[in-house]
Design brief:
By secondary structure, the chain is an alpha+beta fold. The protein has two helices and eight strands; from the N terminus they run αβββββββαβ. Strands 1-2-3-4-5-6-7-8 form an eight-stranded antiparallel β-barrel. It is elongated.
């Protein structure tokens, strides 16, 4: 006849085995929820690199509640003894890995457009710009590939 202690241990093992799939499923759901939130936060950061000159980019989240959140983007460029430039403004999230900033110039019909595309692990960004000479002059550009600092 099995002892009461052995019977209780066997009963605990059976209950534990029944709960294990539920615990694993809850852990997986928790991981997916936090990894998506973490991925959105990883859009924020400071990046530096080279294009036509030295490039710096700063991205700050303005709205953490909205899936299509708004981000403050500040882009700087410089070539020694030739030009410097900066553009800043609110960028819209186009998809999970792309932001777009449209900054107006003095002419109401023109705008500078900066697109920031993140790589898969968000350690690098590719920046492209259009119509931004008003912000940096003809010798500089905001475009290039930058690494996270």
């Amino acid at each position: 006849m099995p002892s009461t202690l052995a019977s209780a241990a066997t009963s605990r093992q059976v209950k534990s085995a029944r709960c294990r799939p539920l615990i694993i499923a809850l852990a997986a759901v928790g991981f997916l929820l936090t990894s998506n939130a973490y991925a959105d936060l990883r859009l924020e950061g400071r990046f530096h690199g080279r294009g036509d000159g030295r490039l710096e980019l700063q991205v700050l989240a303005l709205d953490r509640d909205d899936q299509n959140g708004a981000y403050l983007v500040i882009a700087d460029t410089a070539i020694l003894n030739q030009c410097t430039g900066e553009v800043r403004g609110t960028a819209k999230k186009l998809d999970a890995s792309t932001l777009r900033l449209r900054a107006k110039t003095d002419d109401p019909n023109e705008f500078c457009e900066i697109t920031v595309r993140y790589n898969s692990d968000r350690s690098r960004v590719q920046v492209t710009s259009e119509n931004c000479n008003h912000f940096h002059g003809p010798s500089c550009d905001f475009g290039g590939i930058l690494k996270r600092r």
